[in-house]
């Protein structure tokens, strides 16, 4: 099992999760985070830290696409280990549907 970040993170990018991760397996894109599925140790401490409920176990239905999504972008984006402010309109976008199609950016974040 591993944990993944889904599209609920897009346009919010809360980083509460990165501070509690014992193995630094979060990677930062321009407007979301992902978890490297091969580095995640399945401890689950990140899941309750996410205000957007964007972190889910891969054992839930239809998670295969998110495992591959997280793998792809974690290999392209820089690691993030330090909490940062959420994106400026995070509260407006929290809970919004269709964020992958509307807002997703493949551009890397700054990391750090």
UniProtKB/TrEMBL annotation:
It comes from the Bacteria. The keyword Transferase does not apply. Residues 1-30, 31-60 form the 4Fe-4S ferredoxin-type domain. PROSITE patterns: 4FE4S_FER_1, 4FE4S_FER_2. One of its GO terms (molecular function) is 3 iron, 4 sulfur cluster binding. Keywords: 3Fe-4S, 4Fe-4S, Electron transport, Iron, Iron-sulfur, Metal-binding, Repeat, Transport. Its cofactor is [4Fe-4S] cluster; [3Fe-4S] cluster. NCBIfam families: FdxA_Protbact (NF045490). This is Ferredoxin.
């Amino acid at each position: 099992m591993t944990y993944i970040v889904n599209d609920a993170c897009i346009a919010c990018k809360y980083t509460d999760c990165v501070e509690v991760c014992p193995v630094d397996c979060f990677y930062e894109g321009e407007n979301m985070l992902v978890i490297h599925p091969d580095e995640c140790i399945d401890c689950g401490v990140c899941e309750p830290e996410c205000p957007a409920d964007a972190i889910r176990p891969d054992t839930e239905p239809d998670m295969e696409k998110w495992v591959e999504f997280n793998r792809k972008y974690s290999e392209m984006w820089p690691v993030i280990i330090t909490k940062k402010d959420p994106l400026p309109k995070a509260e407006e976008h929290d809970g919004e549907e269709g964020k992958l199609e509307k807002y997703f950016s493949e551009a890397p974040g700054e990391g750090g």
